[in-house]
Amino acid sequence: MARSFYERLTALDSSFLLLEKRHSPLHVASTLTFEAEPLRTADGGIDAERIKRHMVAELHRIPRYRQKIRWIPMTSRPVWVDDDRFNIDYHVRHTSLPRPGSDEQLKRLSARIMEQPLDTSRPLWETWIVEGLAGDRFALISKVHHCMIDGVSGVDLLKILLAPTPEVPEEERHRFLPRRAPSPFELWRDEMARRALLPLQLVRGVRSLLNEAEDARRDLGTYAREAYRSGGVDLMGLASLFDSPNPSDTMRRAMVVRLLTEHQDSQVADALAAVGRVDVLRDQAADLVKQARSQLKAAESALRTAKRKRDIMG
Fold first, then answer.
1. Which residues are catalytic?
2. Taking the model in full, what pTM does it have?
3. CA–CA separation, 80 and 64 (whole Å)
4. What are the tens digits of pLDDT across the range 129-156?
5. What is each CA distance from 262 to 137, 165, 233, 267, 269, in whole angstroms?
C-alpha cells in the first residue's frame, strides 16, 4: 500500500478554522475587473473555458489549491490532504450580470458571494467569472480561506494566475496524481506519537539553549580581557566574574552598566549585549522546562487514554 501523505497546519492557520462561524467567515476576498476583448467569444460572451484551462495549467505551482482539510480524531488539529475528487468546475464558476451591468450591481453580487462560507470538505477557494459589465469589461471574484493565504501571499498568487499582457501561450496541462490520505486511525496514532515525543524535544531545546548561554558567558570573558589589553578600562576583576559559571550574577551586570556609563567603551558595550543574551537564554530555558513538564503530563494522559481504548477494543 502506498504511503499516506498529510501536512499539519500551523497553530495560526488552525486558529482561522477554529474561530470561523457561520455569520463570520474567515476568507480573503478580492474583486478584479478586466477588459473583455482579449477573451471575448463569437457570441459576445467571455471564454470561461480558456480561463479554466489556464488555471488548471498553473495549479501544479499552487499545490494547496488541490488540498482539503481533514481533522485528527479526538483533537482539534487539522491537516492538509490531497483531494482525490478535485473538480475545477466546482471551484471556477461562470455567471453574468444583466447587461449592461453597473459597478453597483457587481458590488452587490460580490457581497452575496463573500457572505457565504467555503465548503470545508473541499479545497478552500472559489473564483467567479462575471461577464456583462458595462464598458466592455468582465470581473473575477476570488475568495480563498485565510488558513491558506494572507494578504501578501494573495498578491503573489495573483502574479502566478495573471499576466501583464493578453498574449500568454497556453501551457501544457500537468497530470494531477493525488497522494493517499491517511485513515483516521493513522492520523490519531501519529498525533499521539508526536505528543509523546514532545517532552524529549523540549529537553533537547533546553540543552541547546544552555550550550548557547555557556558560549555567551565565554564571550563575556573575552570582551573583558580584550578591553584590558587595549588599555581602555580595567576589567581584569570583571573578567574573573565573567569566568564564573553563574550567568545571573547581579554584581556583574551592575559593573558592566557602570563601566559602560563611565567609559563609553565599545567593547564594554559588546559585553553588555552578551550579558543580556545570557539572561534571555536563561529565561527561555526556564520557560522550556515548564513547557516540558506540562507536555509530559499531557503525553502521560494521552498514553493512558490510548491504553484504555486499546484494552476496550480488545
1. 146
2. 0.63
3. 8
4. 999 999 989 999 999 999 988 655 666 6
5. 71, 65, 10, 13, 12
CA distance 106 to 113: 11
- Cell numbers at 119, concatenated: 465548503
Instruction: State how far the alpha carbon of 190 is from the alpha carbons of 4, 71, 84, 177, 183, in Å.
Output: 12, 13, 22, 24, 11
Chain CA centroid to CA 230, Å: 48
The closest of 6, 24, 28, 26 to 15, measured between CA atoms, is 26
> 7-26: b or e for each residue (b if 16 or more CB lie within 10 Å)?
ebbeeebbebbeebeeeebb
- For residue 241, give Cα distances in angstroms to 225, 227, 254, 271, 310: 12, 15, 12, 12, 57
- Strand-pair category, 137-145 with 27-35: antiparallel
Cα 112 from Cα 123, distance rounded (Å): 20
Rounded-to-integer distance, Cα 17 and Cα 145, Å: 9
Mapped onto helix, strand or coil, the DSSP state of residue 1 is: coil
For residues 269 and 227, the answer to whether their CB atoms sit within 8 Å is: no
Residue with cell 498553473: 58
Q: What is the DSSP letter of 178?
A: P
pLDDT in tens, 183-207: 888 888 888 888 777 777 666 766 6
Sign of CA dihedral 31, 22, 75, 123: negative
